[in-house]
Amino acid sequence: MWSSDGSVLLDYVLSDGIARHIILIDPDSQDSEEAAKRCVAAVIAGSRMIFVGGSTGTDSNNVHETVNAIQEALELCSWNASQDSSSDSNLWEVPVVLFPAAANAFSPTADGITFMMLMNSKSPKFLIEEQLKGATPIKQANVTPISMGYVVCAPGGKVGEVGQANLIAEDDIELITSYAICAESYGFSSIYLEAGSGANQPVSPKLIQAVRESCSLTILVGGGIKDGKTARMAVNAGADWIVTGNLTEGFSDANGLQITLQTFITEMNS
Ligand code: 1GP
């Protein structure tokens, strides 16, 4: 459904309305079968997009295997639902999108890719070099790019270190506003405010609000969001999508994950 026409995916990702949840799967943190089970539980709970990626330990092999396993699991669930008149097979129309740390974390079968500039990196590698390496394979595979300014805020964690980011302080409204306007002026369609995976402090609602007030980009927020109440604060400040990664990895059983995410998503939009 997503691959035939990229505009379908872009409309879906960039549309306004109720804030939605993204489950981030790091292919280095579990095998592909486990990843697929987690995604099925997340979709039942209400997650509306799946990101596949991680700052370290990803390559085209584990990324591709994970993307395929997730897509197969969703297709199977969709087919099962289509055989049951009481089930809604549309529930399973959830895109699997790459969230790459570098050009080698690619899968040609993914439904889309966050095509990011790590805007506050000191390194050309994350500003343009990895993008140059990835651009042709992405185009040839017809994977839809979602243009995105990626800005790492304090504390920044691993991605802040690896990405050599000049972290945005929680009260630097002027600077985050400049990044937001810059991202919009470049023609990006979205901006991701990142505090770093496992951050002890999520992105400050004040920073999110400043971005919301200064541009009309779709806003994604992630890093250190561990409960629905924190997610709701981000949503009230203007976030369109909330991304969680670590929250998922703490569960060995899919049922426990489903219940936790259901509560999380309900609270996020309450
Ligand atoms: C990391 O923002 C994401 O890129 C998710 O962070 O693992 O802390 O949920 P967490």
Can you walk me through this structure?
The chain has 270 residues and is of the alpha/beta class. The protein has a single domain (6-268), classed as FMN-linked oxidoreductases (TIM Barrel), CATH 3.20.20. Helix content is 46%, strand content 16%. It is built from ten helices and eight strands. Strands 1-2-3-4-5-6-7-8 form an eight-stranded parallel β-barrel, surrounded by seven helices. Strand 1, helix 2 (32-45) and strand 2 form a beta-alpha-beta unit. It starts with 5 loop residues before the first helix and ends with a helix. The model has no long low-confidence stretch (mean pLDDT 95). The site of SN-glycerol-1-phosphate has 14 residues, from strand 8 and helix 9.
Summarize the main sheet: 8 strands, parallel, barrel
Unreliable stretches: none
Mean pLDDT over all positions: 95
In the CATH scheme, the class would be: Alpha Beta
Number of domains: 1
Strand order of the largest sheet: 1-2-3-4-5-6-7-8
What is the CATH architecture descriptor?
Alpha-Beta Barrel
State the secondary-structure class: alpha/beta
Can you identify the CATH superfamily? FMN-linked oxidoreductases
Number of helices: 10
